[in-house]
């Protein structure tokens, strides 16, 4: 069970106190309490890039900053949408539950991303929960100021709409992956979906999710994920590089995602190894 952020839900946050929030001054940069060398530059956040300095200064007055430890519950599905949130540092995961009550990972939130915009726009409860994968720093903008930011600035509104469209497409892709009967193919499909071409033409998955995070995202066990990754690594399809996964054979990965017989996979049982050896854990 995830713990609430600072012992309370962010959407019921109060002004600066000893619990971890801070008052901010009217400047485009926000100094973080307890971290004198860390300064948040709002103009570096993609959603806010290009806005007038006066607009950023108005935001600073309303912003609240919180730190969340690993496993902290940032947003709770069904909670009130009182804030638009920005991830300043760390990594978060958006999760939902299926009909059996099992957690399903939907996507990851990386530094510079914002989240919670749906409730800001329609005023309805949160549509999913958000959990901290590691210690994270988060900025909260109250709903009223967030609405002003979106509705009064066409550049921001355009970016929010583009983000919503991308989210709909991504959700459709994840639904298709979850519909694949074979557990190993679901893992291969997710990796294929996450892979992107980096500068220089190399196909990689930056900030590779952990095996447990992948297991949640494709509704299988961590052991199955380990075996699927072991298959790809042993056959030279992918290569581990710290927190990055290099896809050496993108076409083979694509075929593994679409063809059950590509690696002579079993019928889909999570308990049957696709290898006859002893697969090591290639965790990330």
Describe the protein.
The chain has 284 residues and is of the alpha+beta class. The protein has two domains: 3-175, Jelly Rolls (Sandwich); 179-263, Winged helix-like DNA-binding domain superfamily/Winged helix DNA-binding domain (Arc Repressor Mutant, subunit A, Orthogonal Bundle), CATH 1.10.10. The protein has eight helices and 15 strands. The protein has helices at 53-62, 117-122, 143-151, 154-178, 183-194, 211-218, 222-234, 250-258; strands at residues 3-4, 29-32, 35-41, 64-68, 72-75, 83-89, 92-97, 103-109, 114-115, 129-132, 136-142, 196-197, 203-205, 238-241, 244-247. It has a five-stranded mixed sheet. Strand 12 (196-197) and strand 13 form a beta hairpin. Helix 4 runs antiparallel to helix 5, helix 5 crosses helix 7 (222-234) and helix 6 (211-218) crosses helix 7 (222-234). The longest helix is centred in the middle third of the chain and has 25 residues, at 154-178. The relative contact order is 0.11.
Shape: globular
Major beta-sheet overview: 5 strands, mixed
CATH topology of the largest domain: Jelly Rolls
Rg to the nearest angstrom?
21 Å
Query: What's the domain count?
Result: 2
Helix content: 25-40%
If helices are DSSP runs of H or I spanning 4 or more residues, what is the number of helices? 8
CATH architecture of the largest domain: Sandwich
Strands of the biggest beta sheet: in what spatial order? 1-5-10-7-8
How many beta-strand runs?
15
What structural class do helix, strand and pairing data support?
alpha+beta
- In terms of DSSP E residues, the strand content is 15-25%
Task: Let me know the CATH homologous superfamily of the largest domain.
Answer: Jelly Rolls
The CATH class of the largest domain: Mainly Beta
Average pLDDT level: 80
User: Which residues form runs of ≥5 with pLDDT under 50?
Assistant: 12-28, 266-282
SSE ordering = EEEHEEEEEEHEEHHHEEHHEEH
Taking the alpha carbons of the first and last residues, their distance comes to 22 Å
């Amino acid at each position: 069970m995830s713990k609430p952020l600072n012992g309370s839900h962010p959407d019921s946050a109060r002004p600066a106190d000893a619990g971890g929030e801070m008052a901010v001054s009217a400047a485009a940069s926000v100094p973080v309490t307890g971290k004198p060398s860390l300064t948040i530059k709002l103009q570096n956040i993609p959603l806010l890039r290009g806005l007038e300095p006066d607009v950023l200064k108005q935001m600073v007055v309303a912003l609240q900053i919180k730190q969340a430890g690993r496993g902290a519950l940032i947003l709770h599905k069904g909670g009130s949408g009182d804030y638009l949130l920005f991830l300043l540092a760390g990594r978060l995961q958006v999760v939902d539950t299926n009909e059996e009550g099992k957690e399903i990972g939907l996507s990851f939130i990386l530094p510079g991303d914002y989240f919670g915009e749906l409730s800001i726009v329609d005023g309805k409860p949160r549509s999913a929960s958000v959990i901290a994968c590691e210690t994270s720093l988060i900025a909260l903008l109250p709903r009223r100021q967030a609405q002003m930011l979106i509705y009064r600035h066409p550049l921001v509104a355009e970016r929010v709409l583009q983000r919503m469209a991308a989210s709909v497409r991504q959700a459709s892709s994840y639904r298709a992956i979850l519909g694949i009967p074979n557990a190993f193919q679901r893992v291969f499909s997710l990796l294929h979906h996450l892979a992107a071409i980096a500068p220089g033409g190399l196909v990689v998955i930056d900030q590779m999710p952990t095996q447990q995070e992948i297991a949640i995202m494709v509704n299988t066990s961590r052991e199955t994920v380990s075996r699927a990754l072991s298959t790809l690594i042993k056959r030279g399809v992918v290569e581990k590089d710290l927190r990055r996964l290099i896809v050496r054979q993108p076409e083979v990965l694509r075929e593994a995602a679409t063809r059950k017989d590509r690696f002579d996979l079993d019928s889909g049982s999570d308990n049957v190894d696709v290898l006859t050896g002893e697969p090591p854990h290639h965790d990330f």
